[in-house]
Amino acid sequence: AGAGGQIIWSVPGETACYRCSAAGRYTAAAMGEDIDLAGEPGLLPDVQVVDMYALNLIVGLLERGSPTPKGRLIDELGDRTEIVVTADPSYIHGRALWDALTADLPPADDRAGSLATYLGMFPVFTLPNVADPTCPDCRLHNPIGGP
What is the model's pLDDT at position 146? Predict the structure, then answer.
């Protein structure tokens, strides 16, 4: 029920493109695997959480370089061009990230509860994506040398 979402963006010539950021989907498609993302019904407030982060990124891209908080957002994120928003501790991608971040800590009885307790109701993870120097999309949009 609208447990979370991922937002990926790119700036041609500066950051990894979508093909680089979602390389696993392209590999799976080339191998003939089903790459359709499962749809999940969600309450409007759950969906809006992800939409709010996406809107902040859009405004950040439009205001980039201005001395406003949103104008500094994209540059401050650097190579982190993916945001994972967890609207529910059961969101599998958010839970996997949480488990990876806390792997060296003593086992917890309730990691989902810890996620909500320690990171707040809507934890957000920002992840870097690295451009593949052999990526055909990066070469197409930045023929001088890639990101």
Answer: 45
The whole-angstrom separation of Cα 13 and Cα 140 is: 10
Higher pLDDT, 146 or 139: 139
Q: Which of 94, 93, 89, 92 is nearest to 114 (CA)?
A: 89
Give the rounded percent of residues in the chain with a pLDDT score beyond 90: 14
What is the rounded CA–CA span in Å between residue 147 and residue 126? 19
Q: Which residues pair with 7 in a beta bridge?
A: 83
**85 near 7, Cβ under 8 Å?**
yes
Q: Give the type of residue at 32.
A: G
93: its two tokens: 């991608």
> What is the number of other CB atoms lying within 10 angstroms of the CB of residue 50?
22
Burial class (CB in 10 A: 0-12, 13-18, 19+), 36: exposed
- Mean pLDDT estimate for the chain: 78
What is the band of 86 on the pLDDT scale with cuts at 50, 70, 90?
A: confident
